[in-house]
Amino acid sequence: MIKEPNVKKCSFTDYRNWVMVNFLLGTGVRISTLVSILVKDIDLAESILKTRHNKNRRQQIVPISRTLNKILIKYLQYRNVESEEVCKYLW
Q1: pLDDT score of 87
Q2: How far apart are the C-alpha atoms of 17 and 15, rounded to whole Å?
Q3: What is the pLDDT of residue 64?
Q4: What is the chain's pLDDT, residue by residue, as a tens digit (91 residues)?
Q5: DSSP notation for the chain
Q6: What angle is formed at CA 88 by the lines to CA 81 and CA 52, rounded to 5 degrees?
Q7: What pLDDT shows up at residue 91?
Q8: What's the start-to-end Cα distance of the chain, in Å?
Q9: Hey, CA dihedral for 74, 77, 83, 84, is it positive or negative?
Q10: N or C, which terminus of the chain has less Cβ within 10 Å?
Q11: What is the topology classification, in CATH, of domain 12-79?
Q12: pTM metric for this prediction
């Protein structure tokens, strides 16, 4: 996909935007769905995303590729997300 930015040299927003672009390309979700994703909606062990804010207002399960799974793991580690209560929204 797109070349990963150097975390030590780029800002958090640059890195977050890179992850968001990869997420959009990898899942095909809409922007409105993207901004409403919670950390608990992503199951990295099963490599799935549960979307609740869709156009048809029905829950949808979207598979996550291995590459995107690795990117999300790095992103969550970068943000130091240890519990869902601390950081409710993914972005």
Answers
A1: 64
A2: 5
A3: 94
A4: 578 888 888 898 999 999 999 999 999 888 888 888 988 889 999 999 998 777 777 888 999 999 999 999 999 988 876 655 556 888 8
A5: -PPPP-TTTS-HHHHHHHHHHHHHHHH---HHHHTT-BGGGEETTTTEEEE---TT---EEEE--HHHHHHHHHHHHHHT---TTT--B--
A6: 120
A7: 83
A8: 20
A9: negative
A10: N
A11: hpI Integrase; Chain A (1.10.443)
A12: 0.82
CA dist 41 and 27 (Å) reads 13
Q: What are phi and psi of 87, to 5 degrees?
A: -125, 95
- CB-based burial of residue 1 (10 Å sphere; 0-12 exposed, 13-18 middle, 19+ buried)? exposed
Sequence length of the chain is: 91
Closest CA to 9 of 64, 62, 1, 18: 18
C-alpha to C-alpha distance for 10 and 16, rounded to whole angstroms:
10
